[in-house]
Amino acid sequence: EAIEKGGYEHFMLKEIFEQPKSIADCMRGRLNASAGELTLGGIQNYAEALAQADRIIIVACGTSWHAGLVAEYFIEDMCRIPVEVEYASEFRYRNPVIKEGDILIAISQSGETADTLAAIELAKAKGAIVFGIVNTVGSSIARATHEGAYLHAGPEIGVASTKAFTAQLTVLIMVFLKLAKRKGTIAESRFRELLIELESVPQKVEKALKSDDQIREISELFKDAHNFLYLGRGYNFPVALEGALKLKEISYIHAEGYPAAEMKHGPIALIDENMPVVFIATRDSSYDKIVSNIQEVKSRKGKVIAIVTEGDVLIPKMADFVIEVPATHEALMPLVSVIPLQLLSYHIALMRGCNVDQPRNLAKSVTVE
Ligand code: G6P
């Protein structure tokens, strides 16, 4: 087992640090930025049906569901197709409206999640075309779908999903950039720019990982907190949900993720000097708005930990702690901004003496209801 952990103390830490490589593996042979090409061998026969879709339904559970939420923002932005993201467990039992030829995308690391598999079977029975975004080759979900794209992220052992999340985002971005190109909903220049940016993501993730020591120090100060709030807007809203989930899963600290603007409809009542609030506040189209949200928290004495874009000069004046990540296009930022949140949950859990790789009551793959 020590060999499998490759020198790291835990599988989770190994998998977090593996991300520059797993993201690159996921793009290998598929992305050719200089030629402006994306090749996805697994999505061919039904590519035209995807291009004709008047809506897309995404089903998943847990972290994979969060990847689906990022995809919703991306697909609507780039492809102009309406998207609904559903918890597989709700979708399968609520008599959903699905018509012949509708497109369903199932996202699953393990490919064995019972609810996701049942959602696929239901959709297929109603005539939907189902694509799988799956890590485990030959898994039940991979076999049940019509077509799909594997993550090629390598096996994920830690129960809390990390490298699968970033690989899911990478694949989804490639699939839907290609679709946007095919549909003509993206300008050639923007398409090229995003391909080049995507190619540079592994280096940016590598750089984001360099904050590990700083994050360990911050973790020391917050390890005894009873609650955490994670706030983000736009593409970083699902990242807030994912950050909160990571912390809950392995440190057993209660954490909630919220869209930052929605805070005033409830969570703001929780803020006092004992409430750590993690803002994912990188430079993007909602930057000014999130700066105001930080002010709202600070004026109520909340403790702010902000994930910011490298070189930000404004937020460091307001926040208690800032963690920098390299700049990238806002649609790709979740690939980078999630990294410090994974590390934060890891260090806090470790300091609290929790079993990081096998948290209580959780399973790597939930094959029963
Ligand atoms: C379990 C795991 C999570 C995972 C979720 C969905 O809850 O502990 O890490 O995100 O299942 O699993 P899947 O394999 O379908 O992505």
UniProtKB/TrEMBL annotation:
GO cellular component: cytosol
UniProt entry tagged with the keyword Phosphoprotein: no
GO biological process, one term: UDP-N-acetylglucosamine metabolic process
Catalytic reaction list: D-fructose 6-phosphate + L-glutamine = D-glucosamine 6-phosphate + L-glutamate
Cell compartments where the protein resides: Cytoplasm
Residues spanning the membrane: none
EC number: 2.6.1.16
Domain of life: Bacteria
Residues annotated as domain SIS: 46-185, 218-359
Molecular function (Gene Ontology), one example: glutamine-fructose-6-phosphate transaminase (isomerizing) activity
Annotated signal peptide: none
Role description: Catalyzes the first step in hexosamine metabolism, converting fructose-6P into glucosamine-6P using glutamine as a nitrogen source.
Oligomer status and interactors: Homodimer.
Protein name, as recorded: Glutamine--fructose-6-phosphate aminotransferase [isomerizing]
Organism of this sequence: Marinoscillum furvescens DSM 4134
Taxonomic path: Bacteria, Pseudomonadati, Bacteroidota, Cytophagia, Cytophagales
Gene: glmS
